[in-house]
Design goal:
Layout lengths: L1 H5 L5 H4 L11 H35 L5 E7 L5 H12 L13 E7 L12 H17 L2 E7 H11 L22 E2 L4 H4 L13 H8 L2 E5 L11 H19 L5
Parallel strand pairs: 1-2, 1-3
Antiparallel strand pairs: 3-5, 4-5
Keywords: Membrane, Transmembrane, Transmembrane helix
Length: 254
């Protein structure tokens, strides 16, 4: 027998030593052995699967907005109000990307612009807002912008952002702001929107109304910009301008 061959010259104690007995592997021992040698590989594999699954879910669940609107202010506006504004505007907008839903994304940019700014936003918010605003302008994500008085003037002085209401560009240094903007309080479409807050909101309806009444609405310059020659941006500009016209008049096109 195989055991006798291995123990031919062994003494009595070694022959009867239970620890020397060769036992067949059990499922548990095989698993323990596998886990000992491959534990790291299994854990890394699980983490990779989780990361890939999260990435796929994020892509599948990510909503591609049909329109984006920027709000430039020297103080932060409640995210609940910005979301509600987007939902209300979507009722008067179109499904531009053909995904079966209409989404208007309102982006808040609270930041200090200009040396005379009275903004009290913190440094992290300032940096994040400036970065996101710059990307927005360069990529042409937002055609419609809103701003409070201070931000409107400073953005025009520093970036020449605003066009006239008919879409033409002002001369450099132009200060006839009344031809570039409409006050929220005078915009019939905007004033018809329901922006009432939820029961758990930190803001009252009166406080939200006061915040919105500080805003002016206008269009960004399009002619002569880097996005003017992009056919998709041209179509997006026209659709955004139609939504802008509704905000002002409260009347749907056609």
């Amino acid at each position: 027998m195989a055991r006798d061959r291995y123990l031919w010259n062994a003494g009595e104690e070694e022959i009867n030593d239970a620890s020397k007995v060769i036992r067949a592997d059990t499922p548990k021992s095989k698993w323990d052995n596998f886990w000992f040698y491959h534990k790291t590989h299994v854990i890394v594999g699980i983490l990779i699967v989780l990361i890939v699954s999260w990435f796929i879910y994020d892509l599948a669940s990510k909503v591609d907005p049909d329109y984006q609107i920027g709000i430039i202010t020297n103080s932060s506006y409640p995210s609940e109000t910005l979301d509600k504004l987007g939902e209300q505007l979507a009722l008067h907008a179109e499904d531009l990307n053909g995904d079966g839903q209409v989404v208007v994304q309102v982006n808040g940019y609270p930041m200090a612009i200009g040396s005379d700014s009275t903004s009290e936003v913190d440094a992290n918010t300032q940096m994040a807002s400036v970065t996101r605003f710059s990307v927005d302008v360069q990529s042409g994500d937002s055609i419609i912008f809103m701003a409070d008085e201070e931000s409107f003037r400073n953005v025009m002085e520093m970036y020449s952002l605003w066009s006239y209401l008919d879409g033409t560009n002002p001369e450099e240094g132009a200060e006839d702001y009344e031809n570039m903007r409409i006050a929220w309080s005078e915009a019939k479409g905007l004033n018809s929107l329901d922006l009432s807050v939820s029961e758990n909101s930190l803001y009252s309806n009166e406080a939200v109304d006061a915040l919105m009444d500080r805003l002016y609405i206008g269009l960004r310059c399009f002619e002569g910009t880097a996005i003017e020659d992009d056919p998709e941006k041209q179509a997006y500009y026209e659709k955004s301008k139609a939504l802008f016209d509704w905000m002002i008049t409260g009347e749907d096109a056609g």
